[in-house]
Amino acid sequence: MFEDFGGDAEPRRYREALRSAAAAVALAWRSAPGTVTAYMAVSVAAGLLPTAAALLVSRLLDGLTRPGYDGLTTVAVLLIAATLGGALTIPLADFLRGQSTRALRLRVQDELFDGVNRLPGLRHFEDPSFQDRLRLAQQAAGTAPDLLVGSLVTAVQAAVMLAGFLVTVFVINPVLGVVTLLLALPALRTQLTAGRRRAELLRDTMNNSRREMFYGSLLTDTDTVKEIRLYGLQRFFTDRAGAELRTVVAAERGTELRNLRARTPDLLLGVAVFGAGLLWAVRAARQGELSIGDVSVFIAATAGIQRGVEQLASTASTAYQAALTFTAFRTLGEVPVDLPLPAAPRPVPPLADTLELQDVWFRYTAESPWILRGVDLTLTAGSVTALVGVNGTGKSTLVKLLCRMYDPTRGRILWNGVDIREFEPDALRERVAAVFQDYGRYDLTAGENIGLGRVARLDREDLVAEAATAAGIHARLSRLGHGYRTLLSRIFAATGAAGAAEGELLSGGEWQRVAVARAFMRRDADMMILDEPSSGLDAAAEREIHDSLRELRAGATVLVISHRLSTLRDADRIAVLGHGRVAECGTHDQLLDADGEYARLWRLQAAGYEPGHVGVADAPAAVAAEGAVAGPGA
Question: At 496, which CATH number?
Fold first, then answer.
């Protein structure tokens, strides 16, 4: 968030903070210009009223000490009016600030999501440093604009009040007025430095805060709570979360101690100046140089100046901190897209010829090892290609490339002979359906979980039911309490009259069928990618799914990844990935005749089904052998 600006770091930080502050105020203005104007006007009035009240008190006291002074009633009425105005401006300002905050929340949410959604690929989202930056942007977006607008208005109010009191002190004692004004400068700088330290603290501890939230979420997450209870991991993750939080708390304590030590001399010096001014005023009053009213307004003014300086410095510190953190939000739109977008994108035609990978190399960063090392593979339109290989050979990475979540580091992927980088990523993905190995489980209704596959048809209950039927999950979803309108979650579900939760949960295999149904919503897709589409199903359910897939994928170009080789034997071609490239390619029979890696894997799995080959004691070894073909990290 904060760059190393070298020798002129502090001035550069101030300029960066000013740009962020200006952007936040502009955002507030765009959200509710009328409300911000009214808020500012009320705050200026609130800043003028204390000076007016102090001057009226002075007139009232002088009038009471001068026999025959006329106009006391008028002064008293004006003082009552100023007091009433001061009382009314507080709730009115609070209401207007609330209105501004509510408008800001709506605007900020839209701009935050726009900044995230403009990134077409996955590279940034799989980068921990970007996740820290994104979380900081989310946090700053929720608080910084409101703090900055509030700080600006408070600063204007404090400045108006300070100016009024300074004029009063200058009239009574110019020297003391100059000294008081000069003392405000170091106090302001001290508070600005404190704000910078707090902003840097937030940046430096963001990774700890994110890990603390992660460990804490594991203790309540429905996907992990069973294992945590079974293995007694509550204390383990509680201690992990506590350690991260203690790191943050210790850093906060150190920062605030530094700020307190830096602030104390300014406070002592301010009190000393106030004391010297008070002693001078008492002596001048005794010598007849000042009236009682002059003394009262001088005391009120000097105290008001101290309060105004403190308020102005504190407000500046808060605004500086908020502005620096808001930089993460302001610059979110400046994050370079992780996929180069074509200036004049070509329309994506139906896949009528081939989808070809030519010498595709890929690694996630310049420092990381190569995942793919020159993959050459051709998927013929309308055919079924199976992809197999042991863990870590890059099968799931290749899926990401085909969906253009990443671009190859070297080489090309051609759609009907055209490099897919010449298409808009969203337009390309519209022609692709997929069942991912790590499919999504959304805390939405059953119908929505399926309809998301083609969100434009989300409300077509007939199409949703048809997709569910093809995936073999229609009967189960129909038996839910509210059918397809049942919420598949117990986290957000409301509580019914009888006290029972309205949401319901599915088993792992049922969720996988829902994911397959979601892909079936795109039965008109040109390309269908099935990454372990039946890994969580029993043998009968797996057969049913593959029969449905065989029917629905007719006419589509299909890439199937599975660790159960028996489900792939009817594929038109089977490609074996090894060491980052295609080691073998052919039909099932051809690969068995070649007696290479595919044949070895086939024999390894087939041996597990031979009578008497695997007993209970051997089960873990058999599972390990089967998992070696293709696992979650593939």
Answer: 3.40.50.300
